[in-house]
Amino acid sequence: MMSVELYRRLRDETGRDPGWKGVGSLRVASGPARLRELQDRERWARRFGLDVGLISAREARERFPLMTDASLEGALWLPSDGHVDPAGLATALTDGARARGAKVLTGARIVAITVGGGRVRGVVVDSGPIACEVVVNAAGIWAAEVGRMVGIGIPVVPIAHQYLVTGPIDGVWRDVPVLRDPDRLVYFREEVGGLVVGGFERRPVAWGLDGIPADFTHRLLPPDWERFAPLMEGAVARIPALATAKAIRLVNGPEAYTPDGEFILGEATKVGGFFVAAGFCAHGIAGAGGVGKVIAAWILDGHPPMDLRRMDVGRFGPAGREPARAAADAIRVYATYYDLREVTAR
Fold it and tell me: CA-CA distance, 116 to 215, in Å (whole number)?
C-alpha cells in the first residue's frame, strides 16, 4: 500500500515519470481449494484496508479476455495493484533524493565499512573514505558480502528467476491487468502490446553460492529454455494465444531469497548504525516504498514504527545460517511460492 501511494505521486513530486501503471490485478483460482484460499485472502486483506474483492470467472474474463475459462473458478480482484518500470522508478527516486539534498555516487564500489566503539563510523569506496553514522545495506544479492564487512551474517541466496517477453499479441492492450495463476505457477503483465510471462518453477537453481563475480553489474544470466518449458506449458494452458506469440527474449536474472521467505530488516545488534533492508524474495519493487519509509523512521526514531520481529535481521543468529542449509531452505521457499497455504494475520 505504501509503495503504491509513493509510485502514484512520484511524477508530480519529481517531474520524472516512473512508469507506474495502476491497471489492477487478478489472482485466479483453477480449482475449489484455491478458491477457498482466495476467500481467506480477501478476508485477511480487508482487515488491513485493502479494496479487494472476489469476482466470478465471467467477471475475470471480462477484465482479461485472452485467458481461457477452463478450470477457472473465480479470481481475486485488486484494483489498486499495477506494475512499474524499474529503470524509470530508480531514476525518479534518485531525482527526488537529489532534489532533497542527497548526493548519489554511481560506479562506486564499496570495499570496507569502518566500525569503532561498536558503531558504524564510515564507508570506504574505491575512490576513498566517506564518514557517516549510518549505513543501510540494501545491496540485494550482494547483501551477504556487505554484511561480512562488519562481521554480520545475512543469509540471502541468489536464485535464477526467468521471464519471457513476447511480441505484440492481438487482444492485449496497455491497461490489461496483471494476472497471476498460482495453480499453474505463472504470472503475466503487459509490455509494449505483448506479455511478460514469468513463474516459479518447482526446480529452481541457486547461483553465486561461491561468490558473485566482481564484474557482475548490469548483466544477466544465460537463458535456460529447458527450465522454463514447464512454466510455458502452464502459461499456454491459461492463455492459448501464447502458443503462437513471437518470443522476443527470455530474461534470466538472480533474485535474493531468504531461508524463510521473509524480508531481512533492521539494525544489527552488535554494530550500531548498520541497518539491513534485503532479501526481498523478488518483491523488491513491490515492497520498496514501504520498506524505505519504515527504515527511515527506524533510523530517526531509534525503533521500528510497527512490529517487525518476524523480519528481524538477527533471527538467524549472528553468523546467519550455515550456507548449504540457507541455500536449501531458500530454494524450497522459491519452489513452493505458489503453494496453497493457510492465510493468517501475523
Answer: 30
Residue 63 cell numbers, joined: 477484465
344: pLDDT confidence band, cut at 50, 70 and 90? Answer: low
Cβ neighbours of residue 219 closer than 8 Å, sequence gap 6 or more: none
The residue among 181, 203, 176 whose CA lies nearest residue 191 is 176
Residue pLDDT, tens place only, 264-293: 999 999 999 999 999 999 999 999 999 999
Show the domains of the chain with their CATH numbers.
109-156+260-335 (3.50.50.60)
pLDDT at 346 over 80: no
pLDDT score, position 319: 81
| Average pLDDT value for residue range 94-120 | 96
Q: What is the mean pLDDT of residues 239-255?
A: 98
Cell of residue 142, nine digits: 550482494
Rounded CA-CA distance 250/174 in Å is 21
Task: Say which residue the cell 495493484 belongs to.
Answer: 81
Q: DSSP of 82-148, one letter per residue?
A: -B--HHHHHHHHHHHHHHTT----SSPPEEEEEEETTEEEEEEETTEEEE-S-EEE--GGGHHHHHH
Contacts 24+ apart (CB under 8 A), 287-294: 287/3, 287/263, 288/3, 288/89, 289/2, 289/3, 289/4, 289/5, 289/6, 289/7, 290/1, 290/2, 290/3, 291/263, 291/265, 293/2, 293/6, 294/265
The answer, yes or no, to whether residue 134 has pLDDT greater than 50, is: yes
Q: Which of helix, strand or coil describes residue 196?
A: strand
